[in-house]
Design a protein that fits this description.
By secondary structure, this protein is mainly alpha-helical. The protein has one helix and no strands.
Amino acid sequence: MRSKRTARQLKSAWIGYHASDADQLVSSLREERIQAEKLLREERELFHAALERKKQRDAELKQLLADSLAEERRWIERAGIHG
């Protein structure tokens, strides 16, 4: 009977040991997921900031083009050239 009890105790200890490993693994994976989500949020924020700067630059370039075309038309009108 003594050897049976020892076997049960060993089995309990073994299961407990592996449960502890599993808990550590789950905890580690959770931390990794949190870090990955944080990095993803940061990358998303950087992407959106860059996209907003690009949109702003595009708007500025469109305005410069419109101003240049208007100036060109004024020069053409002053010169009396009609095309």
